[in-house]
Amino acid sequence: MNPQFIMDGLIAGAIIGLGAVGVTLTYSILRFSNFAHGELLSWGAYLALAVAGALGFLSAGLTKPIAPFSFGWALPISAVIAIGLTGLLALAVDALLFSSFRRRGSAIIIMVMASFGASLALRSLLEFLFTSKPAYFTKALQIAMKLGGGLRATPDQLLMLGVALVAVVTVHLLMTRTDIGRAMRAVSENPALASIAGIDVRRVIRTVWFLGAALACVAGIMSGLLIQIRPYLGHDLLLPLFAAAILGGIGSVPGAMLAGLIIGLCEALAVQAVGAEWRAAVSFVILIAVLLVRPRGLFGKAS
Amino acid sequence: MTAPILSTHGLVAGYEPDLPIVRGIDFSVSSGELVVLLGPNGAGKSTFVKAIAGLVPIHAGTMMLNGRDITHVSPHRKVAEGLAFVPQTENVFATMTILENLQIAVAHLPKAKRGAAIEALFARFPDLAARPSRLAGALSGGQRQMLAVARALALDPPVIILDEPSAGLSPKIVSEVFDMLKAINAGGVTVLLVEQNVKAALAIASRAVILAEGRIAHEGLPEELASDPLVGKIYLGTAHGHQGAPA
After folding, report:
1. How far apart are CA A221 and CA A45, in angstroms?
2. For residue A76, with 0-12 CB atoms within 10 Å meaning exposed, 13-18 middle and 19 or more buried, which class applies?
3. Could you tell me which CATH number the domain at B4-90+157-235 has?
4. How far is CA B101 from the centre of its chain?
5. Domain residues of chain A, as ranges?
6. Which of A87, A157, B21, B66 would give a disulfide with B14, using CB separation of 3.0 to 4.6 Å?
């Protein structure tokens, strides 16, 4: 067996893990499965592409690759702007759709079905604006470096692993060391008690939407940079994202990241062991197994 | 009697607009009082105090705190206005540590003052100071109640409302909890207490109010209510009242 599956799995797992952190945060605080979360990955990637394109139009020097990477300064600058824009998009979807259901005290199934509708609308809008033709941040070729142990990775791939690690550590520190992080955990455990403990629950909900969307944007850009950008980019990752969020334990940031890496590695292993056509089934098998054996996941709290 | 610090006027509240549980309550508490709210099960005591805290929808009437209308103020703003509430159950964040529970409580203070505020709470509740990194969910019933009260007192509120703080506690711990409430009141905090433990509650109260079917049925001094056999029999489940119970 070629050990390269480890590197492939870690890279795919980092993307899944970042997306899953957003899923686990929104699920634990908003208390419904947001099936539109995948679209935030796609929108993040396309928004970064659009901003990078505009920056490249304004200054061609910004598209010149920064050695040893395949992209120029336009991408990191556009990533920062896209993170903000994706966050605002999530807030707009919440304000237009989900907040009215919350005010009415709608059942969870209504929120879930609304998220399906939002998913379809957001994806169709992307196809309308950007067409369904694949797009790329860069078409520059990169030579993979030998890392030892039969592993190879491109500088872009190693950078993305580093970005994912920094993002998860930052979110973990935010959740455990800051007022807003403690407030998010408090609302996740008991929204009514949180409100009488002086926490502005609506502000926490807005923060969670923004943070989840920001992480989805980073994951979407990573996927777009390392593979390609398509309107179905996020939708196709939805099952692995939910599988990772549940395997990690709902509400656990490190759990979601670790579970994302596990799922990425299992998928890469499955590609070598049984063939690429079984890759998508891996998340489903893991999801079913976790729900049967340990529904609270690796780091979830017992109810 | 001094001007009321907390009052409600014709308050109607309940989870459904067409099924009010609180049915028009005119009620007030003066600064420094310790008022106990008594009544049979289903009288609307807990719903009434939850409505004051902002956890149950209000359908009619008004509510004032320190002369300010807080009828439709959100629960977290009421905390900032000086109204603290300790629910009967699930009154601490069980998955968080003692310290984190208190850090949440002092988050409204300027950062420079938070450390001193937490130290002051630990000095007041030494049991909590022993292991601040302990998960609140691992605490005993009495310790949880202390943590819940400490959280509520973190911002030095002028008014604290407690919903059956003695529920589920052993008699020894109940006695400690009531001593604590008496001390809090003696420190100048106005206390509104919902209780099923009639004897202990009347013993520390400065005034008692009896609710029945979502309305005020009786109110008066604890001695009067405790010695009224009719009140005891109908509303408090005691055949002969509580002669001599109040201190």
Report:
1. 5
2. middle
3. 3.40.50.300
4. 19
5. 34-240
6. B21
Contact between chains at B104 and A197 (C-beta distance less than 8 A): yes
Pairing mode of beta strands B22-30, B4-13: antiparallel
Q: What is the pLDDT of residues B51-67, one digit of tens each?
A: 999 999 999 999 999 99
Question: Under an 8 A CB cutoff, do B75 and A200 touch?
Answer: no
Interface touch B107/A179, C-beta < 8 Å: yes
Q: How many CB atoms lie within 10 A of CB B72?
A: 9
Q: What residues in A contact B80, CB-CB < 8 Å?
A: 198
Phi, then psi, of B24 in degrees rounded to 5 = 90, 70
Based on the number of CB atoms within 10 Å of its own CB, is A262 exposed (0-12), middle (13-18) or buried (19 or more)? Answer: buried
Question: How close A81 gets to chain B, by Cα (Å)?
Answer: 31
Least confident among B45-49, B89-93, B237-241: B237-241
What residue ranges do the domains of chain B occupy? Answer: 4-90+157-235
DSSP 3-state of A231:
coil
pLDDT given at position B238: 60
Tell me the average pLDDT of chain B. Answer: 90
Reduced to 3 states, what is the DSSP secondary structure of residue B228? coil
Range with the poorest average pLDDT among A73-87, A266-280, B21-35: A266-280
Residue B8 has pLDDT above 80, yes or no: yes
- A14: CB partners within 8 A, 6+ apart: A160, A161, A164, A165, A222, A260, A261, A264
Over residues A15-44, the pLDDT tens digits come to: 999 999 999 999 999 989 999 999 999 999
For residue range A187-223, list pLDDT tens digits in order.
999 999 999 999 999 999 999 999 999 999 999 999 9
Pairing of strands B58-65, B68-69: antiparallel
d(CA A222, CA A161): 9
| Angle at which helices A37-58 and A201-226 cross, to 10° | 60
pLDDT recorded at residue B237: 65
Strands laid side by side in the B68-69 sheet: B22-30, B4-13, B58-65, B68-69
Residue of B nearest to A186 (CA): B93
Interface probe for A, chosen from B16, B76, B113 (most Cβ of A below 10 Å), is B76
**Mean pLDDT on B194-209:** 91
